[in-house]
Amino acid sequence: MELAYSWTMEIVSCSKYLCSSKSLPIAFLILTCIAVSIYSMVLWRSANVDHSVNTHGNLSLLLKSGEKRFYNFSHTVSPVNSSLDDMADLVPRKKINRNKISLEPCPIAPPGLVGKLTINVQNIIKSVTNDDSLKRVVYGGRYSPEDCIPRERTAVIIPYRDREDHLDILTRHLHNILQRQQLEYQIFAIEMALPTQFNRGILANIGVLIAKETGDFSCFIIHDVDALMMNDKNLYRCGSQPRHLVTGSTKYRSGNNEYGLPYDSYMSGVIALTDSQYTKANGFSNVYFGWGGEDDDFNIRVQRANMKFERPEKDIGIYLAIPHDTDSTNQKNPARFGILDAAAGRQWIEGVNSFINNQLKIKYKRYALEYRKYYTWLLIGINEAAINKQYEKYLGEPFAA
Ligand code: UDH
Ligand code: NGS
Fold first, then answer.
1. What residues form the membrane-spanning segments (predicted)?
2. Is the N or C terminus of the chain more exposed, i.e. has fewer CB atoms within 10 Å?
3. Whose Cα sits closest to atom 2 in ligand 1?
4. Is the CB of 292 under 6 A from ligand 2?
């Protein structure tokens, strides 16, 4: 009671003061401020964007209000120490376009394919040839066929850095072709933050895990940013064995042969694996910083897991390689041969399992996530020194010396 009385007296004396002629402007100012604050709060609550997304965490509110709204904006997530728990809330688990009950499965051989393509990079940039397909892409680089139930739900994972021009060309090119292939798909561009040397393997692992948390994908394609498919019959589907989708690239022209490979056991550029195949091989090794070796190491892993890469027919898996200068933050790794020698002993020690079961043997930072128009973009930070130290004894002779 005493407290209520003293509060009332305070309010009365305040009102007397504010109503005095001298204080009228101050009273007016205070009242205006209060009115503006209330109005802003009302606006903020009714805005089209759910602001909870900018804090790390719960997207369920957004999902309830519909996928369309979710993909109509992009957002950034502040740096966090990632674990699988973090990722679970990061992106929707919802499948793309579930509502297809009355539709037939898409044909095994998609009817709209044209075979060998003449690629004009300038046309891709201007989108002259593929306007319609780009209009059908949902924010985040997603698509699902309207008129049939897709046979594959493909996640395209592109580990990259500092190649925005290539990324723009590749993603436009892919949307055009993957829609003709009648796939349900989403493109993920996984960028590695500076200053560390580029590490393609670790980005592939993180990309696959994030894709798995995003949707129910049946096939994962690890894709170089500068490789443009030249025959749309090269279906981005998985098989009973891991698939190397490249039978030749303009990068490896030799003699009269327009498309070649550098060596027979080369398994890089574009590969396709199911979740269980990727997990069985334990994904890529995480310890190859800089250029070279991670792809050869992955081939060893696949073989040691009793699997074997398959390729499409020779004239199907052909690629145009976009020419580029050497990347300054992807120097040839002088230790790569020693690390590769120790590949077998390291296979179950580190790989995609370094990030799962909440044991998180390798930590990384997820600096940003954006649902861009043609792809989902993630910026990943890695501590190179910490990883090298952690696996020092598994890195082979030259490194340990
Ligand atoms: N990548 C980037 N940025 C980089 C490095 C690599 O985006 O700085 C990605 C990109 O997806 C690329 C892939 O990693 O397609 C493979 O990179 P790579 O440098 O091994 O292969 P690429 O065909 O070039 O792009 C090879 C030429 C450099 C050779 C140097 C030693 N001969
Ligand atoms: C091998 C590299 C691979 C690389 C391949 C093709 O020597 O990582 O060359 O390179 N292996 C090692 O260094 C151990 S390319 O011709 O595309 O520059 O992918």
1. 26-44
2. N
3. 160
4. yes
Each residue of 244-259: pLDDT tens digit?
999 999 999 878 888 9
Q: Cα angle vertex 206, ends 204, 212, to 5°?
A: 100
pLDDT tens, position by position, 257-293: 889 999 999 999 999 999 999 999 999 999 999 999 9
Q: What angle do CA 170, 173, 176 make, to 5 degrees?
A: 150
Model pLDDT, residue 398? 62
Task: Give the pLDDT confidence score for residue 396 in this predicted structure.
Answer: 83
Nearest residue to 80 via CA among 72, 88, 69: 88
Say how many Å lie between the CA of residue 12 and the centre of ligand 1: 74
pTM confidence score: 0.78
Q: Which ligand is nearest to the CA of 254?
A: 2
Of 203, 191, 130, 126, the C-alpha closest to 164 is 191
pLDDT digits (tens, 9 = 90+) for 103-121: 899 999 999 999 999 988 8
Q: What is the 3-state secondary structure (H, E, C) of the chain?
A: CHHHHHHHHHHHHHHHHHHCHHHHHHHHHHHHHHHHHHHHHHHHHHCCCCHHHHCCCCCHHHHHCCHHHHCCCCCCCCCCECCHHHHHCCCCCCCCCCCCCCCCECCCCCCCCCCECCCCHHHHHHCCCCHHHHHHCECCCEECCCCCECCCEEEEEEEECCCHHHHHHHHHHHHHHHHHCCCEEEEEEEEECCCCCCCHHHHHHHHHHHHHHHCCCCEEEEECCCEEECECCCCCCCCCCCEECCCEEHHHCECCECCECCCCCCCCCEEEECHHHHHHCCCCCCCCCCECCHHHHHHHHHHHCCCCCECCCCCCCEEEECCCCCCCCCCECCCHHHHHHCHHHHCCCCCHHHHCCCCCCCCEEEEEEEECCCCEEEEEEECHHHHHHHCHHHCCHHHHC
